[in-house]
Amino acid sequence: MQNGPPNEQNPPQLPSPGTLLVDTSRRDQVGEFRGTSGPYWSLRPVCGGTEWEAEPASVRAPSPIERLRAEIARCNARSEGRIL
C-alpha cells in the first residue's frame, strides 16, 4: 500500500555540505552544496565566488568527468591562492 498519490515524486535527499552537484538550469555549472535557503539549495562555484540558489529538481550528481574537472579546477585555484 502506498502512502500518497501514485504519481507523487519524493523530494531529493538533502546532500552533505561540500558535495559536488551540477545545476542543469545554469548550463550544467558544477558547484558545492552549501545549505538551503527556503525551498532552494545554495551552491557555490568550486573555485570560489558568489553562491547561487538552485531548485533541487534541476540539480543532479556530476558525471565522473565533471567531478574530475571540478576537482582539478579547485586544486589549481587553491595552488594559485585564489581560494583557501
What are the defining features of this structure?
84 residues, globular
In short:
The chain contains 1 helix and 5 strands, in the order βββββα.
Please give the structural blueprint.
Blueprint lengths: L19 E4 L5 E9 L2 E6 L6 E3 L4 E2 L3 H16 L5
Antiparallel strand pairs: 1-2, 1-5, 2-3, 3-4
Give a verbal description of the structure.
This protein has a five-stranded antiparallel β-sheet. The termini are far apart. Strand 3 (40-45) and strand 4 form a beta hairpin. The protein is α+β, with helices and mostly antiparallel strands and 84 residues long. The model is unreliable at 4-8 (pLDDT under 50). It contains one helix and five strands.
Low-confidence stretches: 4-8
Largest sheet: 5 strands, antiparallel
Query: Could you say which structural class the secondary elements and strand pairing correspond to?
Result: alpha+beta
Determine Rg (CA atoms, Å).
15 Å
Proportion of helical residues: 10-25%
Distinct helical segment count: 1
SSE run? EEEEEH
User: How much of the polypeptide forms β-strand, as a percent range?
Assistant: 25-35%
Number of strands: 5
Calculate the terminal CA-CA distance, rounded to whole Å: 51 Å
Strand order of the largest sheet: 4-3-2-1-5
Mass-distribution shape = globular
